[in-house]
Amino acid sequence: MDTYPSTSPDVRIKPVSRKKSRLQPIRPDALRRTQTGFGSGDQTKAVQILLEENDRLKKELEQARKEIFALREENLELKKQSRGGPIKGQSTFVTSSKPTNNGKSSEDSKVNNGEKVCNNCGNGIPANNYSLHVIYCEKNLTECSYCKMKFNKADLDNHIEEERGVYQDLLEAVIKGKTSDIQTMYEHGNDIAAVDPSDSSENTLLHIAVKHGKKNTVELLLKLGLNINALNKNHESPLHHAVSIKDEQDALETLEFMLLKGADPTQKDKLGDTPIEKCKRLGKSSLLMLFLNSADERLPTPSMNFRM
């Protein structure tokens, strides 16, 4: 049976005592620890974990660099092979004249000591690894569309950039007459029609090649499409520069070649001089005689009177 407090006047009910609350506001730093789950000790541990992870990644990166270096070495050997040179450690492979199982000859029949020649990279591969190598090779190797060399896909952009060079590389090759370097840079995208912004006369590469008496370079630049009658800022054509070549024999050969290729001997520069008049002014009689003996119908009959 339930009992209830008496409501008799003689019974005094004590008031309920209210103790002071011990709850305190949460401090911001404690809230942050609660939200992140890290105290100061946990933070130190987390930093240590990150440092260890960083060290591990560094080691993996170093290993990857070593592998890339090894692949580049292999690519250099592949270059030598494509140019006709032997690859290190590779013996000469003999193509079997016997038909394969299906009665047809195949590149895969090139064997030597249990090796097969990969059609993609040209390397000799152990027969038991050949199938896996072909999968890897076709997935990772690609061909430069300019020089047809084989490269790892990851290295192709670097190869093109290195072979293309910059304008200063092209300029140096023109001055020194390095025609093979010019051809390589052109094939990989260097602009042979560009003009050096630091050259106040705005000479083309053809002007520069002529000025330095590099006949083979002149021939190559014309073959690659440069205009033989291009004018610089002073309205000088490459033929004007040919007259100024210091070595007389180089000047004669370059001048004769350019006239045969259609250089205009009547073009006037800002001073009003044609290449013939420039010959007179410089006192170059041998070059003037070359103009006199030229069969170019555009040429007036020049006098031999030299002017200073």
TrEMBL record:
InterPro entries with a match to the protein in the record: Ankyrin_rpt, Ankyrin_rpt-contain_sf, Znf_RING/FYVE/PHD
Keyword Chaperone assigned: no
Keyword match Transmembrane: no
Renumbered residue ranges of the record's region Disordered: 1-39, 80-113
Database matches in PROSITE patterns: ANK_REP_REGION, ANK_REPEAT
Alphabetical UniProt keywords: ANK repeat, Repeat
ANK repeat ranges per the UniProt record: 201-233, 234-270
Polar residues bias: start-end ranges: 89-104
Domain of life (superkingdom): Eukaryota
Protein name: Uncharacterized protein
Native organism: Euplotes crassus
